[in-house]
Amino acid sequence: SLIFQSLGNLESLNLFKNKINQIQRQAFFGLGNLRTLNLSSNLLGELYDYTFEGLHSIMYIDLQQNHIGMIDDQSFRKLVNLKIIDLRDNAIKRLPSFPHLTSAFLGDNKLMSVADRAITATYLELERNWLADLGDLYVLFQIPDLQFIFLKQNRFSNCVKSANVIENNQLIYMDLGE
């Protein structure tokens, strides 16, 4: 399904609110210049390793308000230009690695831990998830360029003792409020 094959100059694609429930292999082939992709308010449930194949220049993907519960660990690995991801309001329990981001909007999901994920960002929004262990903060504070972190309305109730020392001197703002 090479539907976009002849649209090589396209830089922005808005597929907002189209009841899309899956993305076929090679769906985005031919969109090598695409910078922004809006797939918000659809019915997507899974993101596979091939979902974003061909999007070599993509910088921003909006996937908020879908039904995403499963994301393959390789879904975003090859997107070296991806700077902003919006995955708010889904059903995500486990994150893939995001090695190149500047901003990650991950609120309103079902994340219970972020301890084993590679996330790089200056702006990290994790509001209204199921995070319970304040020990995860030590992991987040190790993100070298993290400046803004939003963690309000999680389920923080315990803190596993950690020998880790917070080394991030870039943090400007942190919200742990109710």
UniProtKB/TrEMBL annotation:
Keywords: Leucine-rich repeat, Receptor, Repeat, Signal. PANTHER family: SLIT RELATED LEUCINE-RICH REPEAT NEURONAL PROTEIN, SOLUBLE TOLL-LIKE RECEPTOR 5. It comes from Acrocephalus taiti. GO terms for cellular component: extracellular matrix; extracellular space. It holds the Pfam family LRR_8. Transmembrane segments: none annotated. InterPro entries: Dev_Immune_Receptor (IPR050328), Leu-rich_rpt (IPR001611), Leu-rich_rpt_typical-subtyp (IPR003591), LRR_dom_sf (IPR032675). This is Toll-like receptor 5_1.
